[in-house]
Design a protein that fits this description.
The chain has 307 residues and is an alpha/beta fold. Helices cover 36% and strands 15% of the residues. Phosphoric acid mono(formamide)ester binds next to helix 2.
């Protein structure tokens, strides 16, 4: 059964097709309003979420389908000790497709290997978050019109930021990508991503603690929140949480057509004074996420022969 655990589970051609479908949904929503009638999406969220869960649910409703939802681990039998493998077998009896978020890296693999319906990783610990990457890619496509020849700066918590790991993987398949990794020393990109992706594919990158130094070269600035929930002690989080705060002053040397992305939630890392800057794309990114999730649900249900 086809599932999306990692962004690399989708080929570049499939990503192009998803972008085409999402664009058609944006232009012709009525055409898609009943395509999933009578079908059910299950959203299993063992970790908090606003955007991912609600956009998956909005996506399924806008396709004419229905949703069954588990919004927290505490409200499910996981709190009594039920395994992810058993949960996958059980939910497959109720739903045609499953989206799951879980705090443990690898939980999405367990789900996919035990479910009998298509499954989607909605974020597994600090590992990856492929559908956020779909939102990011549609945003880049709509803002820049290309994925090749871009200089992309990732700023903030690059260690625990699963959206960063997934987007770097996705971009690594295009030509002319340059990466700037901007983080405190303690929150650098994990070496497995650096070695297995950037170095293996000969992608030029710089590592720095200084955002202003690289700002003039950037086409895209991907800001991230310091991931409090993945820290072992609060003291370290408090020391690092405000390492980068993007303000209008810091954009003085940025390109006129810079695109500022952030997977959200934002805590303090982008000043609200930037929200009205035409370069701020993070709320467009939220909406793009819903359209790409619609496209992905459609693709997986079609491949499974469900619609
Ligand atoms: N970007 C993202 O995953 O947001 P949520 O945690 O609110 O789903």
């Amino acid at each position: 059964m086809r599932s999306v655990i990692d962004i690399l589970d989708l080929s570049v051609e499939e990503l192009d097709q998803l972008i085409k479908t999402a664009t058609d949904i944006i232009d012709n929503p009525a055409k898609y309003a009943h395509v999933c009638a009578g079908k059910k999406l299950a959203t299993l969220f063992f970790e908090p979420s606003t955007r991912t869960r609600m956009s998956f649910e909005a996506a399924m409703y806008e396709l004419g389908g229905n949703v069954i939802s588990m919004a927290s681990a505490a409200s499910s039998s996981a709190s009594k000790g039920e395994s992810v493998a058993d949960t996958a077998k059980v939910i497959s009896c109720y739903a045609d497709i499953i989206a799951m978020r879980h705090p443990k890296e690898g939980a999405a693999y367990v789900l996919a290997h035990n479910a009998t319906v298509p499954t989607i990783n909605a974020g597994d610990g600090g590992h990856c978050h492929p559908t956020q990457t779909l939102a990011d890619l549609l945003t880049i496509h709509r803002e820049k019109g290309r994925f090749n020849n871009l200089t992309v700066g990732f700023c903030g918590d690059l260690k625990f930021g699963r959206t960063v790991h997934s987007l770097i993987n996705a971009l690594s398949r295009y030509e002319g990508i340059n990466i700037a990794l901007i983080s405190p020393d303690e929150l650098k990109l994990p070496s497995y991503v650096k070695k297995d992706v950037l170095q293996k594919k000969d992608i030029p990158y710089v590592q720095t603690t200084n955002l202003e130094e690289v700002m003039p070269a950037l086409d895209i600035l991907y800001m991230t929140r310091v991931q409090r929930e993945r820290f072992f002690n609060e003291e370290d989080y408090l020391r690092l949480k405000d390492s980068y705060i993007l303000t209008p002053e810091k954009l003085k040397n940025a390109k006129e057509d810079l695109a500022i992305l952030h997977p959200l939630p934002r805590v303090n890392e982008i000043s609200v004074a930037i929200d009205d800057d035409p370069r701020a794309c993070y709320f467009k990114q939220v909406l793009n996420g819903k359209y790409m999730r619609m496209a992905l649900i459609l693709k997986l249900l079609k491949e499974a022969g469900t619609i």
